[in-house]
Amino acid sequence: MQYVIRPDASFRGFAGQVASGVIRPGDPVVSLPSERKSRVRSIATFDGDAPGSVFPPMSVTVTLEDEIDLSRGDMLVFARLIRRASPATSKPWSYGFNGEPAEPGRSYLLKHTSRTGPRERRSRFATRVNVNTLVQETGR
Asked: What are the start-end ranges of the E strands in the chain?
């Protein structure tokens, strides 16, 4: 999400670009990293309210049925994906960067959506995830 729109106390919309999937009013969603659940109430586009579904790479404003706290950089994810292959929200990590595997002992600056964390250094990696199959493999 790129921006929270709140012109007055009666409207709270979350603006951003649809990254994947098709979104419709009534779809259950989960905010990450807070993992708060809600449903899509309405979807507005540049041309007005979307009567049906929206899809990538459309820029939209989503309103939710529940008053949950979302900030710039948070993600709205389909609730059904949380049980399968949701984006990782845990502290441990083992990533490859620019096509190169992450190296133990090297310092990395981590960025999640629009949030940049402190530099991280790992002495070893417990596991790694194949980004093509989402299968966990033994780390190094």
From this structure: 3-8, 11-17, 28-32, 37-45, 48-49, 59-64, 75-78, 96-97, 100-101, 107-112, 115-121, 127-129, 136-138
Looking at the DSSP assignment, which residues form a beta bridge with residue 119? 109
Hey, CA dihedral for 5, 8, 11, 12, is it positive or negative? Answer: positive
Task: Mention every residue, 6+ apart, whose C-beta is less than 8 A from residue 43.
Answer: 23, 24, 25, 49, 50, 54, 60, 61, 62, 63
**Rg, C-alpha atoms of the chain:** 18
The CB density around residue 26, as the number of other CB atoms within 10 Å, is 10
Other beta carbons less than 10 A from residue 24's beta carbon: 12
pLDDT at 53 (0 to 100): 92
- List pLDDT tens digits, range 68-105: 888 888 888 888 776 544 455 444 444 555 656 667 77
pTM: 0.61
Count CB atoms within 10 A of the CB of residue 139: 16
Rounded to whole angstroms, the Cα distance separating 125 from 14 reads 36
What's residue 73's pLDDT? 80
